[in-house]
Design brief:
Strand content: 25-35%
Radius of gyration: 20 Å
CATH class of the largest domain: Alpha Beta
CATH architecture of the largest domain: 3-Layer(aba) Sandwich
Number of strands: 15
Helix content: 25-40%
Number of domains: 2
Order of helices and strands: EEEHEEEEHHEHEHEHEHEHHEHEHE
CATH superfamily of the largest domain: NAD(P)-binding Rossmann-like Domain
CATH topology of the largest domain: Rossmann fold
Length: 339
């Protein structure tokens, strides 16, 4: 099999495609012949050496795949061979074959293609946590979505509209027409000098999401209405460059408003703060399967609509990472095996 491997921290160009022996599934496991693998922001942080939970280099990134089961281990129903599936992988997804616990591989609907399926797990489950678990969006709720053009932003929009809420997005001007057509009530240009003032004038919001971290968190908290919630789910500020730089990460940590989030301050303002790292819940197969089953049903009903910006061959994985670093993507970037 082939794997996109990160031998050391560095820019996207450090990634290499290497050949490895095919893995064999153990007891309770299945092997998936990968047809598509999703690219997410955590993969960039792994490559830059900024992701604490990553295994030591060399490492194969990738948290989500779609493909076909081509082998099963002891204790797994042999009829699973040939089943089209989608799965969370917890590293190793950038591979032509990957082994996962049987419980992590969900059979996907026959008409759901692998590329679209690979765009669903990380973004969809994160959006589910943001809008259906920690905060449960209800009719009339107003939600502020940063990075509105990313995969999570679009997934959040779908789930907010499903619950009859409204979403305001923040994105570069080039993405506005698409986002408004997609269903955002309003979109603010993140590159405009007064974008924060525009957002403040439109607030407060019942749910404010923050994917930037650092100083942005304090500003986001100020936009939350009484009875509302701020949820942090990303740290884009630590990856301002495509290379590993420790200063932005340290600066982002220092700029977090630690003192503002003590219990007395939160009680005084009737606001809540929470955080989401969906990958930390990936091993909870029971809950993850339940949430993914809901998302697959919403896809079949046309409510959850993953949007794939680009499919990139494994051999050009650096281009996929470059799209995310430069914020050129609208929706998901997906890797596919080379012909």
């Amino acid at each position: 099999m082939l794997r996109v491997t990160i031998p050391r921290s560095g820019p996207p160009s450090v990634m290499v495609l290497r050949e490895h022996p095919d893995p064999e599934p153990g007891a309770g496991e299945v092997r998936i012949r990968v047809e598509a693998a999703g690219v997410c922001f955590a993969d960039l942080m792994i490559r830059m050496g900024l992701y604490p939970e990553a295994p030591p280099f060399p490492v194969v990134p990738g948290y989500e795949v779609a493909g076909v089961i081509d082998a099963v281990g002891e204790g797994v129903d042999a009829s699973r061979v040939g089943a089209p599936v989608v799965a969370l992988t917890l590293f190793g997804g950038y591979s032509t074959h990957v082994v996962v616990p049987d419980a992590h591989a969900l059979t996907r609907p026959a008409r759901l293609d692998a590329v679209t399926a690979a765009a669903m797990p990380v973004n969809g489950l994160t959006a589910w946590m943001l809008t259906q678990q920690l905060f449960r969006v209800r009719a009339g709720d107003r939600v502020l979505v940063p990075s509105a053009g990313g995969g999570v932003g679009l997934a959040v929009l779908d789930l907010v509209r499903w619950k009859e809420g409204t979403a305001m997005g923040v994105a570069s001007l080039a993405k506005h027409a698409f986002l408004l057509e997609r269903g955002f009530a309003h979109v603010v240009d993140r590159n405009a000098r007064d974008w924060k003032q525009v957002v403040e004038a439109a607030g407060p919001f019942d749910l404010v999401l923050d994917s930037v971290g650092g100083r942005s968190v304090s500003h986001s908290f100020d936009l939350v209405a009484g009875g509302g919630m701020l949820i942090c789910y990303g740290y884009q500020s630590v990856a301002a460059s495509s290379k590993r730089k420790l200063w932005p990460a340290l600066k982002a940590m220092v700029e977090l408003p630690w003192l503002r989030f003590n219990p007395l301050a939160l009680a005084d303002t009737n606001r809540a703060v929470a955080g989401v790292n969906m990958l930390k819940l990936a091993t909870d197969a029971v809950r993850v399967r339940a949430w993914m089953t809901e998302l697959l049903a919403l896809w079949e009903s046309g409510i959850f609509r993953p949007y794939v910006h680009a499919t990139v061959p494994f051999s050009r994985a650096e281009e996929a990472h470059g799209l995310l670093h430069d914020r050129k993507n609208v929706g998901k970037v997906v890797l596919v095996p080379d012909p």
